[in-house]
């Protein structure tokens, strides 16, 4: 029996006597994908929402209020935080943090979704999990502070922590194809990094799965870069998306829609000035056990999105 098969047998057997409960703080686009992939490993999955919404699958949805979250904490084995860092003081969030500190079991696993934006400008060089965080942008600084909040809390209360620094997330609901289709004047930028939501979910679930009993012990605080294999200029990616759309008759080629670099917005200026190539070696070796990504580059990812005929934008062809 292979090592991987042996681990699977051990974990499936352990589920017969252990109830694994995943709580996702921030049940949005990323949370939904992770919950879907994690459903076979967890007895119960709960997710918090800010606004009422329809239940999804077997996920138990609750309001993001401490009075609903607190009773679940002593039963949880894993907490995943997909919430962005708050822009200002959030009393409800503070109450939830305090409840986690007091009631979440000491051996419980915590993971947070962060961003590779914290690395800032490395002049196009490759960055790893140990590279300096140089960004001075307000958003990236907040994420770095958010990481420190959870690092300090987990260290103080004995919770293992995984920080997932994600490149630009794309998938069937949002991608360069959608951007190119909906805009006639496209603005590009410098070297950017990205990851398909299916690969992001796969990596996060693998990390949670390993915490259920794999022999390899990870550190008390592990950082993983989640990115695909091919950093590329946003101009190149958008032009590739435009070409794919054109082959499917979804592009108005009567208009000059050349993708040009932009330096107008703060975000666009960061694309021009904060260039880096994000190394994903640690993710692939430790979380994915050396296997390849489902979508190793934007090319495979975008082509796969075009194969999804149920997408609303797909049906609105420009040339019947």
Automatic annotation (TrEMBL):
Q: Which InterPro entries match?
A: NAD(P)-bd_dom_sf (IPR036291)
Q: Record keywords: NAD included? A: yes
User: Could you name the domain of life of the organism this protein comes from?
Assistant: Eukaryota
Ranges of biased composition (kind: Polar residues): 255-265
What keywords would UniProt list here? NAD
Q: Where is the stretch described as Disordered?
A: 255-276
Family from the record = Belongs to the NAD(P)-dependent epimerase/dehydratase family.
**Annotated protein name in UniProt:** NAD-dependent epimerase/dehydratase domain-containing protein
Q: Which organism is it from?
A: Fistulifera solaris (Oleaginous diatom)
């Amino acid at each position: 029996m292979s090592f991987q098969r042996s681990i699977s047998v051990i974990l499936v057997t352990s589920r017969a006597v252990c109830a694994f409960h995943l709580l996702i703080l921030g049940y949005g686009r990323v949370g939904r994908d992770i919950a879907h992939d994690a459903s076979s490993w967890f007895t119960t999955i709960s997710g918090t929402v800010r606004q009422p919404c329809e239940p999804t699958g077997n996920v138990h949805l609750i309001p993001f209020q401490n009075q609903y979250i607190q009773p679940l904490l002593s039963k949880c084995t894993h907490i995943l935080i997909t919430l962005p860092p708050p822009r200002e003081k959030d009393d409800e969030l503070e109450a939830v943090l305090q409840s986690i500190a007091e009631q979440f079991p000491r051996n419980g696993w915590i993971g947070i979704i962060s961003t590779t934006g914290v690395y800032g400008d490395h002049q196009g060089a490759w960055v790893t999990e140990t590279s300096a965080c140089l960004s001075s942008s307000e958003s990236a600084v907040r994420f770095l502070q958010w990481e420190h909040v959870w690092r300090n809390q987990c260290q103080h209360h004995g919770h293992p922590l995984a920080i997932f620094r994600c490149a630009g997330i794309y998938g069937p609901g949002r991608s360069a194809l959608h951007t190119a289709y909906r805009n006639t004047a496209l603005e590009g930028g410098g070297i950017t990094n990205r990851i398909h939501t299916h690969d992001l979910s796969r990596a996060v679930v693998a990390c949670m799965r390993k915490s259920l009993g794999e022999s390899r012990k990870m550190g008390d605080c592990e950082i993983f870069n989640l990115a695909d294999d091919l950093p590329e200029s946003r101009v190149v990616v958008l032009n590739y998306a435009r070409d794919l759309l054109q082959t499917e008759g979804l592009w108005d080629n009567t208009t000059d829609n050349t993708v040009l670099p932009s330096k107008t917005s703060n975000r666009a200026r960061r694309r021009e000035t904060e260039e880096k190539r994000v190394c994903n070696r640690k993710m692939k070796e430790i979380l994915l056990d050396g296997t390849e990504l489902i979508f190793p580059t934007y090319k495979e990812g975008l082509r796969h999105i075009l194969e999804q005929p149920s997408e609303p934008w797909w049906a609105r062809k420009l040339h019947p």
